[in-house]
Amino acid sequence: MLSCYYTVKGFGTDEIVIQKSRFIAYVDRAESEEKAYQFLQTIKKKHWDATHNCSAFIIGEHDQIQRANDDGEPSGTAGIPMLEVLKKRRLKNTVVVVTRYFGGIKLGAGGLVRAYSRAASSGIDAAGVVERKLMRIMHTFIDYSWLGKIENELRNSPYPIKDIRYFDRVEIETYVEEGQQDVFRQWMTEKTNGQALISEGETDYVEREIVNPK
Question: How far apart (Å, rounded) are the C-alpha atoms in residues 203 and 45?
């Protein structure tokens, strides 16, 4: 599993008009080729009357699956430029579809490349970009007398709280960056004077929204 990667936050859409042609971008997260094609078919069904529904997507930890489709536009003027935007933004598991309604003015090959690139980028901006970081969930068991101090310490630390459970002892679940488990154990041991029972749990991705990720 990748320690960190970028993808879109979720669904997003935006529209731009260039020389009277409408370019409507749709973007979403897709973690399989099947999901990407399902998304494409949904947009094509929605815009069955459009001149073109061009698409591109990148899927896989190492970008193993890359597809681009011009859907009738001159070869290399739509799908590939959109794919290049995904690569430039370093996005994984992301699908983009740009629907075009022709406005009667031809843009030429260069104009189409710029238009589809701009539309794809605007759709990504509308969807938002997140960083997904692989974290280890650590389980810390403490007596109730420690709860106020440790909760406060954690909220001012690099270890986000995932959950707090109340049993005979308090169980606090925290996210710890993979590879930093021993550092966390030492930190928690010091904060509790050695009174905490600490165990290691499963891994999970934690998302952080990226502002102006271009």
Answer: 38
Tens of each residue's pLDDT in the chain, 214 residues? 899 999 999 999 999 999 999 999 999 999 999 999 999 999 999 999 999 999 999 999 999 999 999 999 999 999 999 999 999 999 999 999 999 999 999 999 999 999 999 999 999 999 999 999 999 999 999 999 999 999 999 999 999 999 999 999 999 999 999 889 999 999 999 999 999 999 999 999 999 999 865 5
Please name the residues in contact with 72: beta carbons below 8 A apart, sequence gap of 6 or more. Answer: 51, 52
pTM: 0.86
Give me 48's structure tokens: 């069955």
Number of helices (H) and strands (E) in the chain: give both, helices first. 5, 10
CA dihedral 159, 160, 165, 168 (to 10 degrees): 20
Q: Which CATH class is domain 131-209?
A: alpha beta
What residues are paired with 58 via a beta bridge?
66, 94
CATH superfamily to which 4-127 belongs: Impact, N-terminal domain (3.30.230.30)
Half-sphere exposure of 58 (CA within 13 A, CB side): 20
* Domain residue ranges in the chain: 4-127, 131-209
